[in-house]
Design brief:
alpha+beta, Ku70, Chain: A, Domain 2, seven-stranded mixed beta barrel, two-stranded antiparallel sheet, 9 strands, 25% helix, 27% strand, extended
């Protein structure tokens, strides 16, 4: 794996040199965009809006429009804005991980120690495990401040990016039903169905089957084999009554269990 950020974890007065690695990878197929007429690849160009000419990466700079004029920034400007935050994952406090709403979670990364930080890294990892706490920290990556949670998982410390409060939309704008609209009998039946379908979460049970089916279709199409469009098989209750639908769902589960 290739590190995407290098710096240190700030744990009190202890600095732990670390590297940051992406913990995820895409499972979808790498599809190219093509011209419908001749299947030529579509390229996206960086074009100067005044001249219409393509601009090379080496000649592109970043700027912020201020008072109708652009203030151009270079790499040193981003560094000077907060040199500490660009190189330090600063732990501010420790919390119970369960108190962080899943709505805030974004992207997971792996943290691995540099040679000089192996012992301190292991110490932080074991201390987090023993206390059951997660560390809340901030740092800057790719010119953006990151709010993150650090937690142990076996031998690795996982850094999860989480969203700032101002990045979360207010759900009050949505047309949501009131709780008093739910009938007690319906709620009891729904709870029973949930309990029947409950089990321990096992990530190994879940596979990206759509990608596999799409690749199968692609290979067949490449051989000139026409695949028959599958008929949708959605089993549902014929009744429009919610209680009847719940009862029918419970019966289906009971039959499968027997």
């Amino acid at each position: 794996m290739k590190a995407i950020w290098t710096g240190a974890i700030g744990f009190g007065l202890v600095n732990i040199p670390v590297k940051l690695f992406s913990a995820t990878q895409g499972s979808e197929l790498d599809l190219d965009m093509l011209d419908k007429k001749d299947h030529s690849n579509i390229r996206f160009l960086r074009v100067n809006e005044k001249t219409g000419k393509e601009v090379q990466w080496a000649n592109i700079v970043k700027g912020y429009k201020y008072n109708d004029k652009y203030v151009v920034l270079d790499a040193s400007d981003f560094e000077m804005a907060s040199a500490k935050k660009t190189s330090l994952i600063a732990i501010s406090n420790f919390v119970d991980e369960k108190t962080i709403d899943s709505l805030y979670y974004e992207t997971p990364y792996y943290l691995a120690p540099e040679k000089a930080g192996v012992h301190a890294y292991a110490l932080l990892r074991e201390a987090l495990s023993k206390t059951g706490k997660a560390a809340v920290a901030t740092f800057v990556m790719r010119h953006k401040e990151i709010l993150a949670v650090l937690r142990p998982s076996d031998k690795v410390i996982i850094l999860n990016r989480i969203r700032f409060l101002e990045e979360i939309r207010d759900p009050s704008e949505l047309p949501l039903p009131d709780r008093q609209d739910i009938k007690p009998a319906e709620l009891t039946m729904a709870v029973s169905l949930i309990r029947q379908l409950s089990s321990e979460f096992d990530i190994h049970k879940y596979k990206d089957s759509y990608t596999a089916e799409l690749l199968k279709l692609i290979k067949s199409k490449a051989k000139g084999i026409r695949i028959k469009e599958p008929a949708m098989k959605i089993v549902h209750s014929k009744s429009q009554d919610l209680m009847e639908q719940l009862k029918a769902s419970l019966k289906i589960k009971q039959k499968k269990a027997s």
